[in-house]
Amino acid sequence: MKAEGGRAILPQLEAIHAVGIPFLGHLGMLPQHVLEEGGYRIKGRDEALLPWPRTKADVLDELAVYYAVIDHIDRQVGRLLDQLRADGRLVNTFVIFTSDHGESLGEHGLWRKMNFYEQSARVPLQVSWPGVIEGGRRVAGATSLVDVTATILDVAGVSAEEVRSWSLDGDSLLPPMRGETDDWKDFAFAEHLAHGTDRPRAMVRE
Predict the structure, then answer these.
(1) Quick one: what percent of the chain has pLDDT higher than 90?
(2) Which positions ≥6 away from 58 have C-beta within 8 Å?
(3) How far apart are CA 159 and CA 176, in angstroms?
(4) Which long-range contacts (CB under 8 A, 24 or more apart) does 59-68 make?
(5) How many CB atoms lie within 10 A of CB 13?
(6) How many Cα atoms within 13 Å fall on the side-chain side of residue 197?
(7) pTM for this one?
(8) Residue pLDDT, tens place only, 119-144
(9) How many CB atoms lie within 10 A of CB 143?
(10) How far apart are CA 113 and CA 155, in angstroms?
(11) What are the DSSP calls for 63-93, one per residue?
(12) Which one of 21, 61, 112, 163 counts the least CB within 10 Å of its CB?
């Protein structure tokens, strides 16, 4: 199940609930990447989205828009959780909230994501699984989105032996999230090779 926006996914949730089957859903908040609408024609791409030098007024205007988008996302996630709570499925649903990158938002004179500074490399990673993971618990240590894949497989009941046979780069986050172990690798590897770069780049966070 895949949908873009809170309203789009609710009918799908209701249909699945009617037949009573398990589901795996992906809720995105951007139906079309902003740069697919002509942005790739911008010379310099991300860093050309605001004029140089950056002015305080420009940064504050863009930050206001950014925080408005966050508020919108928060409301849409709330609609999803409200629906799951209303039909009794929230207690048996594993929810992950994350993103693929952060934004510089003016830090270091940069605006978007084409670097490994903390503001662009760090992403939110929040999970909810009532009755299994203690609410409000915060686990210290570095992790990466590659660990999300291993975690979903763990939640789905795929054995650790089978997961290891696939040679995944990530590890399940369930043991540290449930407080079952303090033995966590505590490092994250990131790489970047895309528009706006002239060579492959990588980072290790420890």
Answers:
(1) 9
(2) 50, 51
(3) 17
(4) 59/105, 59/106, 62/105, 62/106, 62/111, 63/105, 63/106, 66/103, 66/105
(5) 21
(6) 12
(7) 0.81
(8) 888 889 999 998 888 888 888 888 88
(9) 21
(10) 31
(11) HHHHHHHHHHHHHHHHHHHHHHHHTT-GGG-
(12) 21
Distance CA 105, CA 115 (A): 12
Q: pLDDT tens-digit profile of 75-119?
A: 888 888 888 888 888 888 899 999 888 888 888 878 778 788 888
| Six token digits for residue 66 | 């950014």
φ, ψ for residue 191, nearest 5 deg: -140, 155
Query: Rounded to an integer, what distance in angstroms lies between the CA atom of residue 52 and that of residue 49?
Result: 10
Q: Is 179 left (phi over 0), alpha (psi -120 to 50) or beta?
A: left
Report H helices in the chain. 6-19, 56-86, 118-121, 146-155, 160-165, 174-177
Is the sign of the CA dihedral 53, 59, 60, 65 positive or negative?
positive
> Hey, which residues does 97 pair with through a beta bridge?
126
Residue 163: other Cβ atoms inside 10 A: 17
